[in-house]
Here is the input.
Amino acid sequence: MAQFTNTSAAAVVWALTHLMKNPRSMEKGQEEIRSLIGTKGFVDEDDTPKLPHLKAIVKETMRLQPIAPLLVPRETTAECIIDRYEIAAKTLVYVNAWTIGRDPEAWNNPEEFDPDRFVGSCIDLKGQHYELIPFGAGRRICPGMLMRIATVDLSLANLLYKFNWEMPMVIKGEDMDLDW
Here is the structure.
């Protein structure tokens, strides 16, 4: 259970970090959440599907900062050729989700935090779109994916609903380096 909570907490921290560096995106997310929830006092799980900008923030965070940047390694069962590279049988192959999420062939301005790129987009986190695979894909996708997405959505939504976040006055957002 510790691994589950650690990765979910890390995703929320990354989202808040990116939002503090990009206050307009945070304001849009807070406006969306606060207008839907009103004075109810909290966001519950039934509310999150009605928050497309929140979902876009989570996708954009997972694109730029996947919690497991290198997915679980796989071993090839037979010799194969991928993009002119010969890969021998029994080779360990690592999928670099961090690099995939920053691929300029798949993303416009790939280094920029821009949740709006996902508003109205069919790209999801469930391994169906290979340009965004923070949980892997196929039959070996992360078994806790749906719970992690729900936990991150709900935690982030409530933190944005209840609190106003900002950078400390001694730190400028443009001075923060978020690369690993």
In short: Residues 10 and 67 are 7 Å apart (CA to CA). The mean pLDDT is 91. The beta strands are 74-75, 80-82, 85-87, 92-93. The helical segments are 2-21, 23-37, 52-64, 97-100, 145-162.
